[in-house]
Design goal:
The complex is a heterodimer of chains A (about 230) and B (about 350). Chain A is an all-alpha fold and about 230 residues long. Chain A is built from 11 helices and no strands. The longest helix of chain A has about 35 residues. The radius of gyration of chain A is 20 Å and the shape is globular. The termini of chain A are far apart. Chain B is of the alpha+beta class and about 350 residues long. A 6-stranded mixed β-sheet of chain B has the order 6-7-8-3-9-10, sandwiched between helices. In chain B, strands 13-12-11-14-20 form a 5-stranded antiparallel β-sheet. The longest helix of chain B is centred in the middle third of the chain and has 17 residues. Chain B starts with a strand and ends with a strand. Classes of the chains: A mainly alpha (about 230), B alpha+beta (about 350).
């Protein structure tokens, strides 16, 4: 086998990071997307712009600001220290925080589109059939938005796996801790270990492609990302 | 029992302001041109549309007043929307069960099986809504609304989105609800045919306000209202089957205005039927005609004569207690010297049975 132990460690960290990020994003993104799809608030567009920002912001810029806030002298780092913790910069926690922000639009937008497509009628029907608002959300809105959840989960996961700039800025490329696949590939190339790079790159290519296949095969009705 | 409705809804370019008391039984039709607020009224009654200063009382239960507004999901109502709106992710059975599961057992007066039986949808239960025809979907939607044992059934043009064939398929079911279940129904429609067939009580809505409300046979013939004018003007008469003539193949129908003779119908004696008499099919004579082919001739009193343009008049008559309309030329009306109080004979050329 051509892959080294550190390659496998990077692989494990990458999937752990992507899995946790996706889970957190689904938990936070669902209420946010629901609210965005229902509200008539005049300034909703402000929030939508903030959610979409990571689509266009250079990852190094996002990473830089995160480094500043999460570091020992930044506000978030200070709060972590207040509770006896370590500032999240250069830790796995820091990577998760960064990934959640970085992949936010890839989860929130498909969910918001799916909730909008559910429309009001089914929810009104449910109300006339004695379902309370919470009941309607779980028994009508979520099942009808299912394709959106699949898209959101796959995109959130895939996008986190492919992250590079943010991780490099706040993760520091510590093997076994914050070193992820995309950076491992970069390191291999720098050291002219092309066969390692080939194996890892090919694997990621296959993985990404099969995830996209899943998304597009399962729901052809939804736009994947909208700006 | 009655239903008190005082509701106001303000939208950008439209205001609904309704103050109405309707009977707590039978079918009340809300009739009017599109955009008059029929659907908004129904939505406000259900609580889907906010009417913060409104008042709504169904029988002895207040659904909303200035102190408290019961939210839609706590109102004991059934709602049938214009499009069937079945949940696409559930099969027919689970669509039906969705509401039933959420109704407290003490309220469940109509069993799910009864609703399934009434609408004859047993064979559709395992199917997904996408595999049903439009008419089948609407039948399931009606059964779903009934299965929650509503104290008030709201129907928003349930036939409007269907083709003629599906409409004919569903109308008898809606008619039978009337006899089978003692649930008051508010039925929104812009079809005079449906209204004439189904309604007992009629509310005319115009630009968000109630123009008139009353027993359907009165509202249809009131000359101060639009329905009594135009080529579709008609009267409705409730009658019962009183006999059959086997020789001539005829059926006799008794009403408060007299006995009607119609071509034989396979109906049991004592069966209640509703007759529809178009104003154009009624002619008037001063003497009872004996040598005429017309079978249905009744004494009547002229109550009012109004002009319809230059050539025609509409005459409002009472046949006993029953109001009917006759559409005549102005010349005939002048020659017969028709005026209020005058005794005439109404010759009814054709009668249609509605149920």
């Amino acid at each position: 086998m051509i892959l080294s132990k550190s390659d496998f460690m990077a692989l494990a960290i990458t999937f752990k990071l992507a899995g946790m990020t996706t889970l957190i994003l689904l938990l936070l993104g669902t209420p946010l997307a629901w609210w965005l799809s229902r509200t008539r608030w005049r300034f909703k567009f402000l929030l939508e712009a903030v959610v979409a920002l990571p689509l266009v912001l250079p990852p190094t810029v996002l990473g830089f600001y995160l480094l500043v806030t999460l570091g020992p002298h930044g506000p978030i780092g200070w709060i972590f220290q207040l509770f006896g913790g370590q500032p999240p910069a250069f830790t796995f926690t820091g990577l998760v925080i960064g990934s959640v922000l970085y992949s936010l639009p890839f989860v929130v937008q498909p969910l918001q589109n799916a909730f909008t497509a559910v429309g009001n009628r089914s929810l009104e029907v449910a109300a006339t059939l004695r379902a309370s608002p919470v009941d309607r959300f779980f028994t009508v809105a979520i099942p009808l938005a299912r394709p959106g959840f699949i898209t959101a989960a796959v995109l959130g996961f895939a996008h986190t796996v492919g992250e590079f700039g943010v991780v490099l800025m706040i993760g520091g490329n510590i093997p076994g801790n914050t070193q992820v696949l995309s950076i491992t590939i970069y390191d291999h190339v720098e050291m002219l270990e092309y066969s390692h790079a080939h194996w890892l790159s090919g694997g990621l290519l296959l993985l990404s492609f099969s995830m996209m296949l899943t998304v597009y095969a399962l729901n052809r009705r939804f736009m994947v990302v909208q700006l | 029992m009655s239903i008190d409705i005082k509701l106001q809804v303000k939208k950008q370019d439209f205001v609904l302001d309704v103050d109405l008391k309707i009977p707590g039984r039978g079918i009340t039709a809300v009739f009017g041109p599109s955009g008059c607020g029929k659907t908004t009224l129904l939505r406000a009654i259900s609580g889907l549309e906010q009417s913060p200063a409104g008042f709504l009382k169904v029988g002895e239960t207040v659904w909303q007043d200035h102190k408290r507004i019961i939210p839609t999901h706590k109102r004991p109502l059934g709602y049938v929307f214009q499009e069937a709106s079945l949940f696409p992710h559930l099969n027919v059975r689970r669509n039906l069960e969705y509401g039933v599961k959420r109704v407290p057992e003490t309220e469940g007066k109509i069993s799910l099986n009864h609703a399934i039986e009434l609408l004859r949808i047993e064979h559709l239960l395992p199917r997904k809504p996408s595999h049903l025809s439009g008419g089948e979907r609407q039948r399931v939607a009606i059964a779903r609304a009934l299965a929650v044992s509503p104290r008030l059934l709201l129907m928003d043009e349930p036939l409007a989105a269907l083709d003629l064939k599906s409409r004919q398929e569903i109308l008898p079911y809606i008619e039978s609800l009337h006899h089978e279940l003692d649930i008051p129904v508010i039925y929104v429609s812009h079809s005079t045919d449906e209204v004439a067939r189904l309604a007992d009580y009629l509310v005319l809505l115009e630009a968000g306000r109630v123009k008139a409300a009353g027993v359907i046979s009165d509202i249809l013939t009131r000359l101060d209202l639009p329905l009594a004018h135009g080529k579709d003007a008609e009267a409705l008469i409730e009658a019962t089957v009183s006999g059959h003539d086997e020789d001539y193949h005829l059926t006799y129908l008794d009403s408060a205005g007299g006995r009607f003779t119609v071509i034989h119908r396979e109906l049991p004696l004592g069966n209640a039927v509703r007759l529809r008499i178009s104003a154009r099919d009624v002619s008037l004579t001063l003497e009872p005609q004996s040598n005429t082919s017309i079978q249905n001739i009744f004494p009547a009193t002229v109550h009012e004569v109004v002009s319809e343009g230059n050539a025609q008049v509409t005459v409002f008559l009472m046949m006993g207690d029953i109001p009917i309309l006759a559409s005549l030329t102005r010349k005939s009306a002048t020659l017969l010297d028709l005026k209020p109080g005058k005794l005439v004979y109404a010759q009814v050329k054709s009668v249609s049975l509605l149920s």
